[in-house]
Structure formats: structure tokens, C-alpha cells
Amino acid sequence: EIPVTYQFEIVQPLVFQIYDVDTRYHNIPVKTLKLQYQDFIGEASCVLSEIFTKCDRTLTLKLQSKHRNGAPKDVGLLRVHAEESITSRSAVEVILRCSHLDNKDLLSKSDPFLQISRKVETGGCVPVCKTEVINNNLNPVWKPLCLSMQQFGSKDNPLIIKCYDFNSSGNHALIGQLQTSISNLERLCREKTGINFVKPHDRREKVLKAQLFVDLFREKQLYSFLDYISSGFELNFLVAVDFTASNGNPRSPNSLHYIDPSGRLNPYQQAIMEVGEVIQFYDYDKQFPAWGFGGRTVDGNISHCFNLNGSPYDSEVQGIEGIMAAYSLALTNVALSGPTLFGKVIHKAAEIAGRSLAQNRNKYYVLLIITDGVLTDLQETIEALVKASDLPLSILIVGVGGADFTEMEILDADNGRRLESTTGRVATRDIVQFVPMREVQAGAKPIVQALLEELPGQFLTYMRSRGIKPLNVSQDTMPSSC
Question: Keywords, A to Z (predicted)?
């Protein structure tokens, strides 16, 4: 057994070298062996994600050595099996409700959310999860929350639940807090009773009228991202590229679309390559839809969702190389124009995801949008994202260039406030991750890592919210509430 830390957001290449170890070295620890004194048999390589995407998590590789003339020679097979090391898959699902919360706003009611933390031995607290924000409500009922026992250790470990009034500045106002445990939450549900919040006041704790109730408590198995992937679920990659005029003339070296003869990648190529190289291993046929938006196509019309490959019928290309080739071709056939509109490409991706969902296909879609400009259709984009939040779809947005991307931050609901349509419909989950390339390049974290680190969580939120289990697990066992 060789322990390896799995990281979805990066490509993790593995190289296996096989040696024939002389018998006199058999009792020597492996790490102290001097390989130059052993007989090299052959080697094989793969990417860690290739193993996990096999249904039995087993990959057979060809072992190869080199002939004296340098040509590779098959010398056998190596079977590699991966197992996920998880302390516990147990979890509880709860629906939390509050009553009689204090009003912290002058012109409206509080916008409450809960933060749950685990107390540690040093006396401090480690935040574990939080609910969504519910606007203008002093008696909120939050969506089901899944609490992993691996995070909390045991049912009796103390938890701190704090209720805040959301403020867009990030300076959230504390409404009240309480100490409880998983066991106590179960008891509250069973007995249909509440527990009062308290608030620090003059070195004492003031008991508030506000109470926390547990409307649902049920234990369940918590399947991991790799459980789904190794059972046959796929991630399908889609790309949309900004062809607006603000990118600059593609023939100019100063353009964001400039194709450098030296082979140096422009920001669009860099984003496609880095994200695509990770996700391609989770897509079985590697047929990727690739679109452009904001460009004037060969028919003279400005289009906000055209096929990069120039085909009037089919948007799919083969592999990451196919996307790169189609992108280069489009730069010669499409004139940069504008404005910057996301709505149509999001609707197109949602249409594909919706069709797949209707056919019960085991696919989850990942749309990468690369743009240099400020959104012109912000509200239409929000409407499309709210609608798409019910679908097996995540959207990654990369901002390139020096534009003001403040509006993009609105789309990425990392502050806890979910997107809301003009009709009052709230997104069921956060499906957007936005990263400005200039900020990532200034730091130590690669752009692909910043973009993809939330994706497994978004995938799991979707699967769990719909009660979807891995394909090798029976779907008919639904736990009952208390």
C-alpha cells in the first residue's frame, strides 16, 4: 500500500518502476534500498484520476523497458488498485428552524443564517458549515443541512451554533448563539422542543426569546465524490470564449487573443489547457462542446453563442487539442464585436444538462466561461443561473485582462447569499466559481486550483439534494425522519 493524497483540482501523474531486488536485500527497508544495485525490469505511468474513474478502481498498465536501440519493449502488466481511506461515512441530515429572532435591521427584518462550529480541546472553535441566508425573516426555516460525523468526531462532542444577520459588507451582526451536540439535536427533534439562544451581555449571557428547533433529524450514509466517479458518473466539459472587441486585435501582440508563434499560451489558451487537462480524465468520450460569444460570424451577424469549429450543426470537438484548434480557427473566421452577454451560453449549457437529466444519464456538466469584460446582461445571467441551479451543472468563470470584475463577484455566491431572480425565486445552490486570472497569478495558487477546488462540493450538493446515490448502491433505501 502506498498512501497518496487525492486532489481533484490538479493532475497527479504517477510513475511505477519495477525492480528485481537481490535476495540479500530482502530484509532491508525499501526506502534505504540503493536502486542502482538492483535489476530494473520496467516502468509504467498513469494519472491518479484514471484509476478512480474505473468502475472497480483498478487500472491495468503495460510495463515497458527500453531496447538497446531505445525503442520501448513490453515486459509485462501492472495492475493498480486504489481505495479511498475514509474514517467514517456516517452523517446526519437536519432541517433547522428558528423563531422570534431579534430584528437587526432598521427598514426591514433580519437576514439570518446559521454557522455551526466544533469546539476543540484548546477551547477555540473551528467553523464546519453554515446555512444559506434567508432574507427578511425572523422565523426562518433553512434547507436541509448534511453534517458529516467525520467532521464532528462523535455525537456528544460540543457544537457552537451562531445565528447572524447577514450584511453584504461581511460584517455580520450576531443575533445569538448556543452550545449543543449532535445527540442533543436528535433529542430536540424527537421531543419537538426548542433551545434558547443566548448573547454575551456585561460579562454574562443573556437568555433570548429566540429559539432553535430541529424539524428533521435522520442518519444516512455520506458518499464521497470518488464513490460517484468510480461507480460510473462522468464530468462533461463545455467551453465558452469571449470574442468581444475589448480583447484587442488578435494580430496585435498586446491582444488577449494573440496567438504567439513561439508557442507561448495566451490567457484564453492557458485557461482552456489548465482546466481541460484536469477534467478530461472524468469524461469518457472526450467530446467537448466549444462555443464563442460576442463575435460577428461569417454570415455577418453578431452571435452570443456560436460553434467555435465553424459547424452550423455540431459544437463538439475531440479533446483539449480539438478545443485549441477550433479556437485558433475561429479567430481567423470571426470578427470581434460585442457586447458581453453570458445568458445564451448558460441557457445552452443548461439545455444540454436538462436533456441529460431527463434521459437519466449519469453525467454532471462543467461549463468554463473565459471573458475579459464587464457583463452587459447581469440580470439575464442571474435569471439563467437561478434556473440552472436545479440542474447537474457547475459554471467556472475566468476573468482575463484588467477589467473591473466586481459584478462577477455577485454571481459567485461565496458570501452566503444565494442568487435571486426578479420573481423572487432563489437559487437552490451555488453553482458558480469566479476567479480573476490576474489575482491568481499574483499569488501562489495556480488558476486551475482556485477554479476547481469547489467543484467536488458542488457536485456532492447536487447529488445529495436529489437523493442520488452512486450507481452501485441501491436507490430504494430512504431513511425516515424522527
Answer: Repeat
Q: What is the pLDDT of residue 416?
A: 65
The string of pLDDT tens digits covering residues 453-462 is 889 999 999 9
Name every residue whose Cβ is closer than 8 Å to that of residue 396 and which is 6 or more positions away in sequence: 275, 366, 367, 368, 369, 432, 433, 435, 451, 452, 455
Q: Are 294 and 337 in contact (CB under 8 A)?
A: yes
Beta strands in 243-296 (DSSP E): 287-293, 295-296
Neighbours of 118 (CB within 10 A): 17
Q: Any residues with CB less than 8 A from the CB of 209 and at least 6 apart, and which?
A: 100, 196
The band of 333, judged by pLDDT with boundaries at 50, 70 and 90, is very high
pTM of the model: 0.80
Q: Which three cell numbers stand for residue 160?
A: 457552537
Q: What's the half-sphere exposure (Cβ side, CA atoms, 13 Å) at 223?
A: 24
Domains, the chain, ordered by start: 13-81 (no CATH), 90-221 (2.60.40.150), 225-465 (3.40.50.410)
Q: Give the C-alpha separation, 295 to 26, whole Å.
A: 66
Give the Cα separation of 304 and 342 in Å (integer).
Answer: 8
Of 229, 467, 237, the C-alpha closest to 353 is 237
d(CA 21, CA 40): 9
- N-terminal to C-terminal alpha carbon distance within the chain: 42
Order of strands, sheet of 72-81, starting from the edge strand that comes earlier in the sequence = 13-20, 39-47, 58-66, 72-81
Q: For residues 131 and 274, what is the distance between their CA atoms, to the nearest angstrom?
A: 32
The answer to whether 178 and 119 have CB atoms below 8 angstroms apart is no
